[in-house]
Design brief:
Blueprint (H helix, E strand, L loop, with lengths): L33 E3 L2 E3 L9
Antiparallel strand pairs: 1-2
Length: 50
């Protein structure tokens, strides 16, 4: 992590309101993504393939 780094989890619908710049990284989940503590988790889907 960098000094003064901020991690924010918001919906894609609200992304246009977010404070972003050239150092911003955007991760986009899917319909199975969820938050756990301060993390965004997207299951890999292996469970449904067996």
């Amino acid at each position: 992590m960098r000094k003064d780094e901020i991690v924010t989890i918001i919906s894609l619908e609200d992304l246009h309101k977010a404070d972003v710049n050239m150092q911003t990284i955007v991760f986009i989940g899917n319909s199975t993504s969820f938050t756990y503590l301060d993390f965004m988790v997207t299951p890999r889907g292996y469970k449904d393939k067996i």
